[in-house]
Amino acid sequence: MKTIDLPSPSKETAGLLDQARDEDVVVRLADGSEFMLVAIDDFDLELARTRANPKLMKLLDDRARQTNLVPLDEVKRRFGA
Question: Running DSSP on this structure, what letter comes out for residue 28?
Fold first, then answer.
């Protein structure tokens, strides 16, 4: 992910960003390319960074495929809870 600072955005850009504060905005170019402007908060940024981490995503995928699970009752029994 790349961050670009806009110290003094053009009037059109500022207008688009203001709209994106309230709702997601899709910008479509003449060639058909589309881009989405979305206001983000700290959680959104952390989520995007997490998804961009291939090692972490592989670990999570591998864990999701695990079939050798221990039921909660068994865990409680083993630990005397």
Answer: E
- For residue 7, the 8-state DSSP code is S
What whole-number distance in Å separates Cα of residue 81 and Cα of residue 31?
Answer: 63
Dump pLDDT digits (tens) for 29-81.
Answer: 999 999 999 888 878 878 888 889 999 999 999 989 988 888 999 999 999 88
Q: Could you give the CA distance from residue 75 to residue 13 in angstroms, rounded to a whole number?
A: 56
Place of tokens 């997490």: 50
Per-domain residue ranges of the chain: 11-68
Answer yes or no: are the C-beta atoms of 77 and 57 closer than 8 Å: no
Give pTM, 2 decimals: 0.52
